[in-house]
Design a protein that fits this description.
20 strands, mainly beta, Jelly Rolls, 6-stranded antiparallel sheet, 7-stranded antiparallel sheet
């Protein structure tokens, strides 16, 4: 085991959005850059070109995530993951605060994204950290829909009528495979786990205009070939949560996400896992204990990357704590 690797925190990459709010600052403790008023996203861990995360803690502070992968390779990300992805980190972790409903959009799959953009596709999941009483998530078609009916609804401005509008409450889980039409509703604060991709096709933007009266670009032609028009029967999954137990929220070829809620110390054994692990704190705070007793504190809204070489971790809550645990099987 390398003696130099430790749980890594990164400087959040904050994004101003027209639909953003202030919860990332007031609830999550993010320090906004001067002049930023509507912070919609905090990119907690990113390998996206042009937005690569920079280490914030320890002696590796100031290094980029990609630089660390170049140096530590499988020790950091896992041998099989390094073989597959090289120096590109395969996941993007975000916190999103929506004070208005986002555009209705869709993401391409791997093959389409590779052919069109030389990029990965985007399968993602959302965990609702907080939501106002009337908050909704739009996800998937209510019924099987034809391309013709979809295009007619798009032209007439009533596409939302064809889609699921699901109430969003704290603890809800939404899995969004590539090809599924979706939108985050107003009043929602969530964690997003996704493939490393920034490819989004915007298909309906509620007829909004910016301060100059201009509409945002729509991607009708690009989107039509990637949309899954089948009806979705279960737009959200809500597995029962037990204290001091691990609950699997979503699992696919791209990531597995668990929720850990605990009020006493728990041990995590990763000896059979050939992957990095990511913790995002969604409630309370805890100590992440590793090595010979060293520790990092993880507070609400913070994310930490556990290198693949750290196989034994103790999570000690300060009161009660809940975290998302993310890795690649």
């Amino acid at each position: 085991m390398s003696p130099t690797l430790y749980p890594l925190k990164f400087t959040p990459i904050l994004k101003e959005r027209i639909w953003g709010g202030n919860k990332l600052q007031t609830l999550m403790g993010k320090k906004l850059p001067k002049g930023m008023l509507r912070c919609g996203e905090s990119w907690e861990i990113s390998g996206v070109e042009g937005d690569v995360s920079i280490v914030h803690n320890g002696f590796l502070a100031g290094n980029t995530l990609n630089e660390l992968i170049e140096i530590y390779m499988g020790e950091l990300v896992g041998e099989s993951i390094f073989e597959k992805f090289g120096e590109e980190f395969p996941l993007l972790i975000k916190l999103i605060d929506a004070t208005e409903t986002l555009s209705i959009q869709v993401h391409p799959d791997d093959d389409t994204a590779r052919n069109r953009h030389h990029a990965y596709g985007k399968t993602e999941m959302w965990y609702i950290i907080d939501a106002e009483n009337d908050s909704k998530i739009i996800t998937g078609f209510k019924n099987d829909t034809s391309r013709e009916d979809y295009l007619l609804a798009l032209r007439n401005g009533n596409l939302p009528d064809l889609l699921h509008h699901e109430p969003a409450t704290k603890g809800d889980v939404f899995f969004i495979p590539s090809g599924r039409v979706h939108a985050i509703g107003k009043g929602v604060l969530l964690a997003e786990i996704q493939q490393t991709s920034d490819i989004t096709y915007r298909i309906f933007d509620w007829n909004r205009t910016d301060s100059q009266g201009k509409s945002r670009e729509l991607h009708t032609e690009l989107a039509i070939d990637v949309i899954d028009f089948k009806g979705v029967t279960q737009p959200k999954t809500n597995p029962p949560i037990e204290n001091n137990k691990t609950t699997e929220l979503a699992s696919c070829q791209y990531f597995t996400t668990n929720r850990l809620a605990f009020s006493s110390a728990i041990q995590r054994d990763y000896n059979l896992l050939d992957s990095f692990v990511i913790y995002t704190c969604i409630d309370g705070e805890c100590q992440v204990i590793y090595g010979s007793g060293e520790s990092e504190t993880l507070t609400l809204g913070e994310t930490v990357l556990i290198p693949a070489d750290l196989k034994n971790i103790i999570l000690r809550p300060i009161g009660h704590c809940a975290i998302l645990e993310v890795f690649i099987k």
